[in-house]
Write a structure and sequence with these properties.
With about 625 residues, the protein is of the alpha+beta class. Helices cover about 30% and strands about 20% of the residues.
Length: about 625
């Protein structure tokens, strides 16, 4: 198999405290039908390798090989990740493989481990002793793959002749393998570098391998399902999604190859699983990187770019100041230039939301456009960028640009007139929730279905529990800010008023909350004080649950009864039909925040409770 000499050269430089290699490639030479690329490698501004080839990638790799030889590392053996390779094989064959500990010998401060691979009743050879469990597992995986390859030579790619243990074990031999420690063990190599760091980097570059490994540990059977195809015959694009016996994951964008679509599908599955298994999956990039075209992400935008040509997404640490982050309003004339079929969905005091189709991947997104009025506007992006949960609207990317808004005294229509002005705006690209808001769902509800209502409410409180676990307060929970996907999955959105649980900016937050004009669902302390914490999100949950269980016949009836409901006084007949629910709602609506349950307690209560036996309306 072809050696990844470029990666090995970078690793060699890190381990030997050398500066990072610099790859330079002048313009290609030769006629258009027979181009030749020349690559030069510099370390500390000294030329250490040079090569030419038909492709840029091959030229880089060969030049890196020449550099390694010049540096004295002549016998370069590329060691694949044997655990990932074994996981991939086992998933394809629907066979479960486990690592069985055989021994742990030596003093307590320096133990050595041996492992073997087991599949059903079959046991594979035992590794020699290693100083970390993961290294012993990798060695065992190598031995198992060797044995499988002897029986099924077409099923396993060619393996290196020997296994080089780089963990520093004195008992290492050429019959076993090296590789990173993906378990988080703090084992050290000869030069003091953690194996886990290199493995995490490896796996981030290969999300398919990481997903296979994770599913193997969970004993899940993983499949990749081909999605749609688009484009002309000479330039087809493909999508894909990952699926286990338990669940399906989001579908990838349209990609140039099926392999790339599968990598993005694995990445999206890992992002979703990361929120549920944070310690079992290493940190992932914010967005999927299309490595077939350097610098492009899965959600490129018309926003500003860095000098390297990579799109500058707003991360949680971004600041609005161009001096501190290099971020400035986009110079692009049309900030939505990469979208078409743009339709306004909603408009409020601070901006608007449009539905738009991304021309590149032909998918529909929601793009929120918010007027920039100081650094506070970035709070929503910071929150969305760090929130990864199945019940939170998925964030893609953000950029700055210009947009036109009519004066507040004017109509929100798109009519062209002199009142329209251009403002600096923040554009936030998010997943589109195609089935609208909970507000619309409640409005259309003509009969209460408790099973359906509780299913919706459970998803809402799961999302709130996650928000609070991230030390954030939403502060604007209401049916209009809760949405449904095409598959009727509940998603909490609109984080324009989100704040930390630190209380550092509570007064400012309180003033902004009052200006939004949504006091209907506000907790009493949020309306009357500037001192509150995350229990302000529990109060509106009580009102939302009430609305899921009761239908007002008219708007005037709702207006008349709503103030009573906020005080825990319900319409005639509600308590009779919902005695247990009334008790739960009253706790959520308590004027004393300390008496309200935590979101975690609500989740536990509503997941443990069976279907109520009281009658629906």
């Amino acid at each position: 198999m072809e050696k990844n000499c470029k990666g090995l050269l970078i690793e060699f430089c890190i381990k030997n405290s050398r500066s990072q290699p610099r790859f330079e490639m002048p313009e290609a030479t030769g006629p258009p039908h027979d181009r030749v690329f020349v690559c030069q490698v510099f370390i500390d501004d000294k030329l250490v390798g040079e090569a030419k080839d038909k492709t840029k990638k091959s030229a880089e790799n060969t030049a890196a090989k020449m550099a390694l030889q010049a540096l004295g590392k002549r016998n370069v053996i590329h060691q694949p990740d044997y655990i990932a390779l074994l996981n991939t094989y086992s998933q394809e064959k629907k066979q479960a493989f486990n690592f069985v500990p055989v021994s742990c010998v030596g003093p307590a401060h320096n133990p050595e481990f041996t492992y073997r691979v087991k599949s059903g009743d079959r046991l594979f050879p035992t590794s020699s002793a290693k100083r970390s469990k993961k290294q012993a597992q990798k060695a065992a995986a190598y031995l198992a793959l060797q044995e499988i390859r002897r029986e099924f030579p077409n099923e396993i790619p060619e393996l290196p002749e020997g296994f080089i243990d780089e963990s520093g074990s004195e008992n290492s031999s050429l019959s076993e393998s090296a590789g990173g420690d993906i378990s988080g063990n703090r084992s050290r190599s000869e030069n003091g570098f953690s194996d886990s760091a290199s493995a995490t980097s490896e796996y981030q570059q290969d999300p398919v391998a990481l997903l296979h490994h994770f599913c193997q540990t969970q004993k899940w059977i993983l499949d990749f399902l081909d999605g749609g195809q688009t484009g002309p015959a000479h330039n087809r694009q493909f999508s894909c999604k990952a699926k286990t016996e338990q669940r399906s994951f989001p579908e990838s964008n349209m990609r140039k190859t099926k392999k790339l679509a599968r990598k993005e599908a694995a990445f999206l599955a890992l992002k979703e699983l990361k929120s549920e298994f944070p310690s079992d999956i290493p940190d992932l990039p914010k967005v999927f990187v299309d490595d077939s075209s350097k610098g492009q992400s899965s959600a490129p935008s018309p926003g500003p770019s860095s000098e390297s040509g990579m799109h500058m997404s707003l991360t949680p640490n971004s600041q609005l100041s161009s001096s501190s982050s290099g971020l400035a309003p986009s110079s692009v004339q049309n900030p939505l230039g990469e979208f078409d079929n743009i339709t306004e969905l909603d408009r409020g005091a601070y901006g608007k939301v449009v539905k738009a189709r991304k021309i590149l991947d032909e998918k529909l997104y929601a793009v929120k456009i918010v007027q920039v009025k100081g650094n506070k506007v970035l709070e929503e992006v910071k929150a969305l960028a760090r929130l990864e949960h199945q019940n939170i609207v998925r964030y893609n990317t953000a950029w700055l640009g210009k947009d036109d808004f009519s004066d507040s005294s004017e109509s929100s229509s798109y009519s062209s007139d002199l009142s329209r002005k251009s403002y600096d705006c923040l554009y936030i690209q998010m997943e589109l929730c195609e089935n609208g808001s909970l507000k619309r769902w409640i409005k259309k509800m003509n009969k209460v279905n408790k099973s359906e209502s509780f299913n919706i409410f459970r998803q809402i409180i799961e999302g709130v529990k996650y928000i609070h676990s991230q030390k954030l307060i939403h502060r604007d929970l209401k049916p209009a800010n809760i949405f449904f996907t095409k598959d009727m999955v509940v998603k909490i959105g609109d984080f324009g008023l989100v704040t930390q649980m630190t209380g550092e900016e509570e007064k400012k937050a309180h003033e902004r909350t009052r200006r939004t004009g949504t006091p209907t669902y506000m907790a009493p302390e949020q309306k009357d004080n500037n001192k509150y914490e995350n229990k302000v999100d529990i109060y509106p949950l009580g009102l939302i649950l009430f609305e899921l269980l009761w239908i007002f016949n008219t708007g005037s009836e709702r207006a008349k009864e709503w103030s009573n409901v906020r005080e825990g006084e319900f319409p005639s007949g509600f308590e009779e039909q919902n005695p247990v629910e009334k008790y739960e709602i009253c706790k959520m609506l308590s004027h004393d925040p300390e008496k309200r349950p935590l979101a975690e307690e609500l989740c536990r209560s509503f997941h443990e409770r069976k279907t109520f036996d009281s009658q629906t309306r």
